[in-house]
Design a protein that fits this description.
The complex is a heterodimer. Chain A is of the alpha/beta class. Chain A is built from 32 helices and 20 strands. In chain A, the strands form seven sheets. Chain A has a six-stranded mixed sheet. Chain A has a four-stranded mixed sheet with strand order 3-11-15-16. The two termini of chain A are about 30 Å apart. By secondary structure, chain B is α/β, with parallel strands linked by helices. Helices cover about 30% and strands about 20% of the residues of chain B. Chain B has helices at about 85-90, 105-110, 115, 135-145, 160-165, 185-190, 195-205, 225-235, 255-260, 270-285; strands at about 5-10, 20-25, 45-50, 95, 100, 120-125, 150-155, 175, 210-215, 240-250, 290. In chain B, the strands form two sheets. A nine-stranded mixed sheet of chain B has the order 5-1-2-6-7-8-9-10-11. The interface of A and B includes residues 568, 653, 682, 685 and 699 of A.
């Protein structure tokens, strides 16, 4: 999948002139402060990103992404879907330009020099260059979707929700005034002054860029374009240079421009920051509801065309300053989503008792209509969980937002980017193989003994736990290393301007600026491990049907010739059936990794370091490098997903499944995703039951629900006739996907999950 | 006191309002040829064998009554429901339908689901025929009511009036089967005529009970004008009937018949158009809503 859809090799001139100027700016400003150097680079990169408006756009702000830049994360095919953080370099794209037949030997050599420079100078490379020996051994590859390993590092500063409410209230001039006011403080250190000066320069640059978009529109008007189309956009841009947004259109325009230039993908509490201006415009007659929906549609279209990932909008919840206005605009936000019928934006609704029934009804209508949005969040339980795990006041916890899969972050107050992932099933696998990876045939993890040495179940469980602790300690150090390296290389100016308390402290984002510098850790295969341990205890240690060594040999052979044993293992208690034995094991496995992870925060200077059990396709990718497991799962097939039962193993009905997942100590995490596949029939014929189901799930303490409404026949047919099912959406990952676009492994995983 | 329960299923949304837990009581006085719960007909525990799971290992061939062969074969007529094969099967290809339990034990199984009922849903006693075990059904219904749980009773109606009378105070709604209007045809297809069923239906209506008439429609059996008219007449004459539910024939019971060692039934599954035709014909005739 392409990261930035607007990006195109064709936009790059043979000489890569922008990239050379950018690199020159980077080199020339080496002696200045980091913030000043970053600003110098942005002064080249951002104007070069401005792309032409397209027919039908009601907002300005198309952009392209060049192979060099500064962003919280950049990703593309060339990086195998991996993120690059801060100063990124898409070397593959530059190599393609270098290899064009039109290049001369001289130009080719120049570009080769450029590539060579950035191969060392990009921040991802700088992070890896700092790996110690242990990290090099245990994290030899970043290609988590392709290579075998227990842990993998990610390189990004994603999912932070900028303070768009402040942006809308103050506008660029207001933000500049705030920075200038702060600069009057004579007690500021030199680096603080440099940082604030760079922020001020950044705001000037953004104002200049609005001018570039204006210029574009003026040229088009001069060429005879329809003024009825372009003049309102032009007027809005002009207003935004001079002051804060005056209406709904201005607010949308400004938020879009800021987010697209910052490279952000998360739009936070949109209902809050758009609510007042929406109501003002609708009630005064300045805007019709239809016009507002059209503007939102244009916003969504820009989002879709710019970046294929993420794009989250949060609605509802406690802690809104304007709930009535926010609810009114929520209806327009969802109405536009229903009409857009695309994978973006990713809508989320924070549900609480006393919430507008109209908003809830519309959300359920969207879901019943086959959209996989909005994600539903249990607001009360989420606020409590955030309060507890992030150790913040209730007031701050009420400002939680979340990433696409359900992980919490404090809106414009915290960074919680998940920069490491662990395959727990693989951790058990290397434990059973004396500290080697049986796929790569090389040492991996701790050698805690041979299967024969685990004479009791407790000794095996304890070895597995030690293994997880070992890898988690490394992962947490990696998270810190990413932050340290970002700090040493730049200021992340665009994020810093709209994150608390960077301006107040006069400190860049990860240099003491952000109020909470946190981290998260994605765990996969939790239920696979729990069910496997349950089965091993019963078959090997209690019934003594075979030795652990024999079992390991059979797993290595993927049950060849031992289907009877596999069937027997499949019949052992499984998580998701309200079975006390299986659920207790899941709790043991989960709580262990939750607590192990949380303990790493202090040692790594993080305000919190928490597990997220999220709902994406990584369980399929990681499963492809995991041998057969003792829960009866075949080798190289998908692992369990999020905090869900292994697909197809929950067979005691929905209440039992929900009771099982509610037994997980979710309040010790930064988010757990629960999938629920409901039938179209249930949604259309029994809406009351759907509502009762959601309310009960939330009463049980389940933090969020990820609902797909579909029927199994449709999915099966979609595998055979994809052309007929382009509109069949299912939720996979921090993004939704069309079912027909999923790989066969993920399709099989989805099909196997119980449909209620 | 113990009752024989063939299954307890959570999250049932088609057997009464809201989210419900359905308790299937085993044993039925009728033998409807299209029955989709054939495992709930006989009032004794029975082994059910799933051929696709069976490893043909022969572990079950020690069956004392000779119901199981050396390669997993199953002669259901010999099964005494002792459950030995179930305990020996390494892969649970064999399970026992029918568990004896006290009303209190049944209540314990149900109570964890109570949070899902939310004042709208509850428990549906079904089967089989719940009133074939009147004391157990009454005791369980009464326990449930004592817990503030709504109870719906699904019945074929073929039970002594005393059984209805005993349970009536605990039931909020009756899902009452009306299968074939013609008494003789009823006997032919279900094994008993419908006089007692009709009589109980009238008395139930007279008692003020809320009734949903559930009408299975089986091609070639009762998809005829006379039966439709019969249903409509009941809705006009009996004020207790608030709604008619149409239950078009489906073949899902055949899988269970195979597991019980029974031959498949031979009815055709009606297409959507036929079903819509039935629905509009009955809607035109009946004095209450007709639901699909």
């Amino acid at each position: 999948m392409r990261g930035y859809l607007a990006w195109d090799d064709a936009h790059l001139d043979d000489g890569l002139s922008v990239e050379f100027r950018y690199t020159q700016a980077y080199r020339d400003s080496a002696g200045l402060g980091l913030a000043a150097r970053e600003l110098a680079c942005l002064r080249v990169a951002l104007p070069a990103a401005v792309a032409p408006i397209q027919e039908g756009d009601l907002l300005a702000g198309r952009r392209m992404f060049r192979p060099l830049g500064v962003a919280p994360s950049y990703w593309d095919d060339d990086t195998d879907g991996l993120d690059s953080v801060s100063f990124y370099a898409d070397l593959g794209r530059m190599e393609r330009v270098m290899n064009r037949p039109s290049q001369t030997a001289e130009s080719r050599a120049a570009i080769a020099g450029l590539i060579d420079f950035w191969r060392r100078e990009n921040v991802n490379a700088k992070v890896r260059a700092k790996f110690d020996e242990t990290m090099r051994r245990e994290m030899p590859s970043d290609l988590w979707s392709r290579d075998s390993g227990v842990i993998f590092g990610l390189y990004r500063l994603v999912f932070s929700q900028l303070d768009y409410d402040k942006l809308v209230r103050l506008g660029l001039p207001g933000l500049k005034a705030e920075v200038l006011e702060r600069l009057k403080d004579e007690s500021l250190a030199e680096d603080q002054r440099d940082f604030l000066t760079a922020l001020s320069g950044l705001i000037d640059l953004l104002t200049d860029i609005i001018g570039l978009y204006e210029g574009q529109l003026l040229s088009k008007l001069a060429e005879g374009a329809d003024p009825a189309w372009l003049q309102p956009i032009l007027d809005s841009l002009t207003r935004l240079k001079a002051g804060p947004p005056q209406g709904f259109r201005d607010a949308l325009q400004l938020v879009w421009l800021y987010s697209v230039l910052a490279g952000g993908r998360d739009f936070g509490r949109m209902d809050v920051y758009l609510g007042d201006l929406y109501v003002q415009d609708i009630d005064s007659g300045a805007l019709t509801e239809e016009e507002a929906v059209a503007l939102l549609l244009s916003f969504y279209r820009l989002m879709k065309d710019t970046d294929s990932r993420d794009g989250r909008i949060v609605m509802g919840g406690r802690g809104r300053r304007n709930p009535a206005n926010a609810d009114r605009v929520s209806l327009a936000i969802m109405e536009a989503g229903l009409r857009f019928r695309e994978l973006k934006p990713e809508f989320s609704l924070r549900m609480y008792k006393g919430q507008s029934e109209e908003v809830i009804a519309f959300a359920l209508k969207m879901l019943g209509d086959g959209m996989t949005y909005p994600l539903l969040f249990n607001d009360e339980a989420s606020v409590r969980a955030v309060q507890q795990t992030m150790r913040v006041s209730r007031e701050e916890a009420e400002q939680y937002g979340f990433f696409g899969c359900g992980e919490y972050v404090l809106g414009h107050r915290s960074i919680g980017t998940p920069n490491d992932i662990i395959n727990l099933a693989k951790a058990l696998e290397v434990t059973l193989h004396e500290g080697t990876d049986p796929i790569r045939h090389c040492p991996h993890g701790l050698n805690l003994g041979a299967p024969e040495d685990f004479t009791t179940f407790d000794s095996l469980l304890s070895a597995y736990e030690k293994q997880v602790e070992y890898f988690t300690e490394i992962a947490a150090r990696h998270q810190k290393l990413v932050y340290d390296t970002v700090r040493e290389n730049g200021a992340m100016l665009m994020m810093s301007l709209l994150m608390d308390d960077c301006v107040a402290r006069a400190r860049p984002l990860v240099s003491g600026g952000v109020r909470y510098l946190a981290g998260t850790y994605e765990t996969y295969g939790n239920t696979t491990v729990a069910d496997s341990l349950t089965a091993i205890r019963e078959i090997v240690y209690e019934q003594k049907l075979l030795s652990l060594r024999q079992l390991v040999d059979i797993l290595d052979a993927d049950y060849a010739g031992h289907e009877d044993l596999r069937q027997r293992l499949l019949r052992c208690p499984k998580f998701g059936n309200d079975d006390p034995v299986a659920d207790a094991m899941a709790k043991t496995v989960n709580t262990h990794v939750f607590e192990t992870t949380a303990r790493q925060a202090e040692a790594n200077g993080l305000s919190s370091y928490l597990v997220v059990m999220i709902n994406n396709g990584a369980n399929v990718d990681l499963g492809q490098n995991t041998l057969a497991t003792a829960d009866g799962r075949h080798a190289f097939t998908y692992l369990s997903n999020g905090n869900n039962p292994m697909a197809g193993r929950d067979c005691c009905g929905l209440p039992a499944m929900l009771r099982s997942i509610a037994s997980t100590e979710m309040h010790l995490t930064a988010g757990t995703a629960q999938n629920l596949k409901l039938t179209t029939d249930l949604f259309t014929r029994h809406p009351d039951a759907v509502r009762d189901l959601i309310d009960t799930a939330f009463d049980l303490g389940i933090l969020s629900l990820n609902i797909s409404v579909l029927n199994r026949g449709e999915m099966e047919d979609a595998m055979i006739h994809p052309e007929d099912h382009q509109n069949l959406f299912v939720r996979v990952g921090g993004f939704s996907a069309r079912f027909v676009n999923l790989d066969p492994g993920t399709q099989a995983d989805m099909l196997a999950r119980a449909l209620y | 006191m113990q009752g024989l329960v063939s299954d307890i299923l959570s999250f049932s949304v088609n057997d009464g309002p809201g989210i419900r837990t359905s308790v299937f009581l085993k044993g039925c006085p009728l033998r409807c040829r299209w029955c989709h719960n054939p495992e709930a007909q006989r009032p004794v525990p029975q082994a059910m064998v799933q051929p696709f799971r069976c490893l043909r290992c022969g572990a079950c061939s020690v069956c004392p009554s000779g119901a199981r062969g050396s390669r997993g074969e199953y002669d259901a007529s010999r099964c005494t429901g002792c459950g030995l094969c179930v305990s020996l099967c390494p892969v649970e290809a064999c399970r026992l339908s029918g568990t004896w339990m006290t009303p209190e034990e049944a209540l314990d199984r149900i109570l964890p689901d109570k949070p899902f009922f939310r004042g709208r849903g509850g428990v549906t006693l079904t089967g089989g025929e719940p009133l074939a075990q009147p004391d157990f059904a009454r005791a369980l219904a009464s326990l449930l009511r004592g817990q503030g749980i709504d109870v719906v009773l699904e019945t074929c109606g073929h039970a002594p009036w005393e059984a209805f009378e005993g349970i009536l105070p605990s039931i909020s709604r009756f899902l009452y089967d009306w299968k074939v209007t013609d008494a003789e045809a009823h006997r032919r297809w279900t094994g008993a005529d419908n006089r007692l069923i009709r009589e109980n239906l009238c008395r139930l209506s007279d008692s003020g009970a809320e009734i949903v008439l559930r009408c299975p429609l089986i091609p070639g059996v009762n998809d005829c004008e006379a039966h439709f008219e019969g249903i409509a007449r009941l809705t006009r004459e009996l004020p207790g009937i608030r709604q008619v539910d149409l239950l078009p024939y489906h073949a899902l019971g055949n899988d269970k018949r195979a597991q019980l060692g029974l031959s498949k039934d031979s009815f055709a599954v009606p297409d959507q158009e036929t079903v819509r035709g039935w629905h509009s014909a009955l809607s035109a005739l009946c004095s209450v809503p007709v639901c699909l």
